[in-house]
Design brief:
By secondary structure, this protein is α+β, with helices and mostly antiparallel strands. The chain has two domains: about 200 residues, no CATH class; about 180 residues, no CATH class. The chain is built from 16 helices and twelve strands. The strands form two sheets. Strands 1, 3, 4, 5, 6, 7, 8, 9, 11 and 12 form a ten-stranded mixed β-sheet that branches. Strands 2-10 form a two-stranded antiparallel ribbon. Helix 2 packs across helix 12, helix 10 crosses helix 14 and helix 12 packs antiparallel against helix 14. The longest helix has about 40 residues. The model has no long low-confidence stretch (mean pLDDT about 90).
């Protein structure tokens, strides 16, 4: 029989004297652990949800890896690459690649009777994965994008629609200026999307690849670049290394020098900002563990002082200090365990409630999302529970040595 565990269980289940000081101390310690764990679970879930939501939006606009002309680094002047079957096949065969899609960017001006706005039109072909656009579609439908014909349909953002007061089904004129020549196209607003990512929503429209190439004066087998979706985002650096070896500084059939960039390189400011959130998470985790640890220390000291007579009797019967210390550490484990239970109930309850109801709303202009995003990571929650338990028990080892200074003779007279 494990004597320390047996005695600790008896002490913990003792509900005899309600006037004991230890009962409020136990409740306070339990509440401290529960609140600390709940805050940690909610914090980690919010940060993970926020980071992945923003990351997915950025990836939705720019994919994981882009292959384009090396001169595209130098400015806004469009440079094309030859996207023939041999290049597409070569990129598709690179390890880690799941899907590829062509795109062509061109700049223009949308004009209504009352206002005008400079925009970037992104031409995409029939192979383009429109699942991201469908998830953020507000009204209308996704146009049928083509690389051989054009229906002059346009997908615009809600921000552009609000500025120009456009609705689905309306016509709008687009003007394109190239070397002093002005070309006009009449588009139909087919759909309106909203991602709340201001840097994209305020200028980016989607049209078909055929029209974008024609406006740039390019051939049908040309494009601004190729977007690449990888199998596993966590393995993006390894896949990017393959592109550096096989694509960078290579030439297409027309002698254009190719290069590749990851989403991290295309939008470094966004991902640097997201990485700063990890610092906030660590600060909150440390603070909450400290709160739980301090409440447990104070609770344990109160319990030891209240049980001084019992400690003296155990010592008089020949029990070693080590055994008594283990008894009170086991007692602390019971308190921490109850705190962890209620902390999980509260923390997971808030996360699931927010995930399925979205009752906590945010300003999309500031946070880029309409509601606080939550991502429940069960392995991480289990790790937080285990870490909290071990850290709290560890910080109680030093206070438990107070037992060594209690003498049996003096403890018998302790009131």
């Amino acid at each position: 029989m494990n004597l320390p565990l047996f005695i600790a269980r008896k002490i913990y289940s003792d509900q005899g004297d309600k006037r004991k000081v230890s009962r409020p101390a136990i409740r306070i310690a339990t509440i401290g652990v529960a609140i600390g764990l709940a805050v940690m679970i909610v914090t980690v879930s919010v940060v993970l949800g926020f980071k992945h939501t923003i990351r997915d939006k950025v990836v939705g606009f720019g994919s994981h890896i882009q292959v384009h002309h090396v001169l595209s680094y130098n400015g806004s002047t469009p440079h094309s690459i030859c996207t023939d079957d041999s290049l597409l096949k070569a990129i598709s065969g690179i390890q880690g690649v799941q899907h590829i899609e062509r795109y062509t960017n061109t700049q223009g001006i949308l004009k209504t009777d009352d206002d005008f706005l400079g925009v970037v039109m992104k031409g995409i072909g029939p192979e383009y994965d429109t699942s991201f656009l469908k998830r953020h579609l507000v009204t209308g439908e996704i146009p049928q994008f083509s690389d051989s014909t054009s229906k002059y349909q346009l997908l615009i953002s809600q921000m552009i629609a609000n500025k120009l007061q456009l609705k689905t089904g309306q016509k709008v004129f687009a003007y394109f200026i190239d070397n002093g020549d002005v070309r006009t196209r009449k588009y139909t607003i087919c759909g309106i999307y909203q991602t709340n990512m201001t840097r994209f929503d305020e200028t980016l429209c989607f049209t078909d690849l055929y029209t974008a190439n024609k406006l740039n004066g390019w051939r049908q087998d040309e494009a601004s670049g190729i977007e690449v979706i990888v199998n596993d985002f966590d393995l993006l650096p390894a896949t990017a290394d393959h592109f550096v070896e096989k694509v960078n500084r290579a030439c297409d059939h027309r002698g254009n020098i190719l290069t590749s960039e990851t989403i991290y390189e295309l939008y470094p400011q966004v991902f640097s900002w997201l990485e700063l959130l990890d610092i906030n998470v660590w600060i909150i985790l440390v603070l909450m563990v400290c709160v739980a640890g301090f409440t447990m220390i104070s609770g344990l000291l109160i319990i030891i002082l209240e049980r001084t007579q019992m400690i003296g009797i155990l010592k008089a019967l020949g029990t070693r200090n080590k055994t008594i210390r283990h008894t009170f550490l086991w007692f602390s484990v019971f308190i921490i365990g109850q705190g962890l239970f209620w902390g999980n109930v509260i923390g997971l309850g808030i996360v699931l409630l927010q995930k399925y109801t979205g009752f906590i709303t945010l300003d999309p202009q500031t946070y880029y999302v309409n509601e606080a995003p939550m991502e429940l990571n069960i392995p991480l929650v289990v790790l937080i529970n285990i870490a909290t338990l071990f850290i709290c028990v560890f910080v109680l080892i030093a206070p438990s040595y107070l037992i060594s200074h209690i003498h049996p003779a003096k403890s018998m007279r302790y009131e």
